[in-house]
Design brief:
Blueprint: H1 26-34, H2 38-48, H3 68-88, E1 112-114, E2 119-120, H4 122-128, E3 132-137, H5 144-155, H6 157-160, E4 165-171, H7 175-185, E5 190-193, H8 198-202, E6 215-220, E7 225-230, H9 233-247, H10 252-270
Helix pairs in contact: 5-9, 5-10, 9-10
Length: about 270
């Protein structure tokens, strides 16, 4: 008889050993304890941040800006300076200069020539003079009225130039015509030729559309207009005579006598 034996039940598997919990090292714990939370760090940074300086008030001027009053005063001074300069120097754009005006001689009247054919300008003539320039204008050389006028200035030449003024005659004639005129009448002064009438127009004695008005123009060394008026042969001499007397010419009385003597003859010839 076979005997059946029961198989032994295998013992149950042993349960896995529980993992031991790691303890943080002292170094790591110290590190964690030292590091503050991010939020707290930001709060500390904000706490030590310096406050911004307050913005200046709207009505308070900047440290380096110029006070409005100073700017206004500067503008007034600048305007006054410009006004004084404009008053001192007249502009031919507004018309011929008048007595009392100060002319800028650079380029004034353009270029002209002497009866000898030498080129010159009003500025050069004034620069060469001692006290200024007398210019009498006449329509045409060697005509009766112009001859009378030229001779009146010739006869009064010494007293008229006693204060340092230089005398010139001015017309649109050619150098040849004026040289003949000067030689024949034995004129002691130079005659100026202005074919384009640029200087004649600048001083206000150009007729329209063409021609020259008889007159006299006197300008001082400083560019100040001392006389500027149209007139016949005798009146143009009289105008200069009066001016020279005012200037204190040494021979003013003698000049007056000479002018009186020729005045009657000049007026008769000019009629």
């Amino acid at each position: 008889m076979v005997e059946l034996r029961k198989r032994k039940t295998p013992p149950p598997a042993a349960a896995p050993a529980a993992k031991k919990e790691r303890k943080p090292s002292a170094k790591s714990a110290a590190s964690k304890s030292k590091a503050p939370p991010a939020e707290k760090a930001e709060e500390k940074v904000e706490d030590v941040k310096e406050p911004e300086a307050p913005a200046p008030a709207a009505d308070e001027p900047a440290a380096h800006s110029e006070p409005p009053a100073t700017k206004a005063n500067g503008a007034k001074k600048s305007g006054a300076a410009k006004g004084a300069a404009a008053k001192k120097e007249s502009s031919t754009a507004s018309g011929p200069p008048k007595v009392g005006d100060t002319v800028s001689l650079d380029g004034f009247g353009g270029e002209i020539s002497t009866n000898d054919g030498n080129k010159t300008t009003l500025k050069a003539l004034v620069d060469e003079s001692k006290a200024g320039v007398i210019i009498f204008t006449y329509p045409k050389a060697s005509t009766p009225g112009c001859t009378t006028q030229a001779c009146l200035f010739r006869d009064a030449y010494t007293p008229l130039t006693s204060t340092g003024l230089s005398v010139y005659g001015l017309s649109t004639d050619t150098p040849a015509a004026n040289t003949t005129f000067k030689t024949k009448q034995k004129l002691p002064y130079t005659l100026l030729c202005d074919p384009s009438a640029s200087l004649i127009a600048a001083i206000g004695f150009k007729k329209a559309p063409k021609g020259t008005t008889r007159g006299v123009f006197v300008i001082g060394k400083d560019g100040k207009v001392l006389a500027c008026e149209p007139g016949g042969p005798a009146p143009t001499v009289e105008a200069v005579k009066t001016l020279v007397e005012t200037m204190g010419g040494k021979e003013g009385e003698k000049m007056a006598e000479v002018a009186d003597e020729v005045a009657d003859t000049a007026e008769k010839l000019d009629k």
